[in-house]
Amino acid sequence: MNSNTYTDREIYPSFCAYVGVRDAGGRNVIFDAVSDQIIAIQPTLVELLDLCDGVHSLDDIYRAHARRNRARRDHADSPEDVRAALETLTDLKVMKFRTYRETKHARILLINPGLPFPRSRYTFQKLTPPLGLLHIAGQLHKAGHDVDIYDMALEDARPADITAYIEKNGTPWDLIGITLNMTPTSAEALRIARNIKDILPDTPLIMGGNHATMTYRDLLRDADADFVCVGMGENLMVSLCAALFAKKGRVEDVAGLAYKVGEAIRPPTPQTERIDFDALAFPAYHKIDLSRYDTNGYIPMITSTGCPFNCAYCSTFKFHGRRVNYYAPHRVVAMIERLIDAYETTKFNFLDDAFTFNRKRIVAICELLIEKRLNIQWMCNTRIDMVDEALLHIMRDAGCEGVFFGVESVEQSVLDKANKRVDFSQVEEVMRWAKQAGLKIRQSYIIGLPGETRESIERIGRFVTESNPGQVQFSMLNIFPGTDYANDPAAYGLEVLPLAWREFNINIPHVRTQHMNEDDILDAYIGLRMSLGGR
């Protein structure tokens, strides 16, 4: 190896995959399970190799080596000797040197993977902008970094297409991120990561999102990710770039970051610091072509994250915790005004999990919209127990056209088992309030929840007919990672059928309940769809 190859870059040594140090009958050896190579090493080298985890630089390793030897009053090898020893191991193909360009302006590629089949197969699949990536890109841009977004779902691109994209753009990105928010895209995300590493083996790769957060150990063990963002990524990505490229902070101190140390997985330290949403950058909508998405003319927005309820079928609570973070009313309205100016539209769709959680905030937003005479039309998602009659009228006066309510079941016992914590008697009342306010109503139901029977499914159909929402959405029970159903299925009387996440399909039931097997769930779903429409 040419010792001058890396003179302008920080060097981060790490073992290759399936390589580790072992004690073989009192002798220290490096064993490579791929090549079957066994290399005897001196005891003094073991301490050095313990630090070769990909997150300690060569300088860090030497300083730690010198510090330990001073404490023992032993002779410390020179920096040149330490480097020479590690370079010998790279020549033997059991170790690799990753280098990070020292810069305050990193070049970053963020990727949104598509679904397993071409878009033409997904008749009912609405393609929406990757809002999470837009928020992260905005924050990275604010920190001085250059960001590209490749929405493979929009481009209907397959994992193999990432090779041509990289070759076409020719951009030497310093960091690549793949969002793995939805479980159905996990197979595509893993294939994309593998293809990236085949052509850019030394470029660090990070995965993040809801599914990645819940399965970070699996990803670090089986996928080609160097890092996994556990939780929200806006501030984490900025901190990681500072540690990797600007020598500000250490990788191991980045809260929420999981990575491998040799073959061991280093779990993340919790992201306990409250995020100041009003200090975050404006989402980078300019990085995508909004006109190409299936938005029906409505610009999607997120004004808050999280939900304080822990429904057994949902992992939002596990991802965000009980805390709900949100933009202040004036910031929400400022974002709306900016989007009106940029896109000449007055239609918005708020995709927050619990938009009306903070009633006082929603009233303030509505008052500002009215005061500024923005005359926008908007929709939102919320829970039955997060609205009241007066609030619905205030929302209508501020331009609200419709509300999406997650009803899920018409049986109180089923809702209780799902830890929904809502009184079904409220549902009929709220539907009446919303209609009296002149709002369009959209309801959703999950078919196959524990406790559901064929008879209760029929009652769902009757209630939908009687309440007559503008739209209804049916989905089958799916067991998503991180949910209470996934963590302890037996406690809910569930039998989860063997399934790798990469084989996951939301339209193929993979669970049995005490009253319904997978065929019963599918038959009930098809029956409701055929009789009532929806999707």
Overview of this structure, please?
It comes from Varunaivibrio sulfuroxidans. This protein has 535 residues and is α/β, with parallel strands linked by helices. It contains 18 helices and 22 strands. It has helices spanning 43-50, 58-72, 79-91, 131-142, 161-169, 186-199, 210-214, 216-222, 234-245, 316-320, 329-343, 359-371, 389-397, 412-417, 425-436, 454-467, 484-487, 518-532, and strands spanning 9-15, 19-24, 27-32, 37-40, 95-101, 107-112, 146-151, 175-179, 205-208, 227-229, 257-261, 264-266, 299-301, 304-305, 325-326, 347-350, 377-382, 400-408, 440-447, 471-476, 495-496, 511-512. The strands form 6 sheets. It has a 7-stranded mixed sheet with strand order 7-6-8-9-10-11-12, with helices on both faces. Strands 13-16-17-18-19-20 form a 6-stranded parallel sheet. Helix 4 crosses helix 9 and helix 12 (359-371) runs parallel beside helix 13 (389-397). The radius of gyration is 26 Å and the shape is globular.
Element layout with pairings:
Elements: E1 9-15, E2 19-24, E3 27-32, E4 37-40, H1 43-50, H2 58-72, H3 79-91, E5 95-101, E6 107-112, H4 131-142, E7 146-151, H5 161-169, E8 175-179, H6 186-199, E9 205-208, H7 210-214, H8 216-222, E10 227-229, H9 234-245, E11 257-261, E12 264-266, E13 299-301, E14 304-305, H10 316-320, E15 325-326, H11 329-343, E16 347-350, H12 359-371, E17 377-382, H13 389-397, E18 400-408, H14 412-417, H15 425-436, E19 440-447, H16 454-467, E20 471-476, H17 484-487, E21 495-496, E22 511-512, H18 518-532
Parallel strand pairs: 6-7, 6-8, 8-9, 9-10, 13-16, 16-17, 17-18, 18-19, 19-20
Antiparallel strand pairs: 1-5, 2-3, 3-4, 10-11, 11-12, 14-15, 21-22
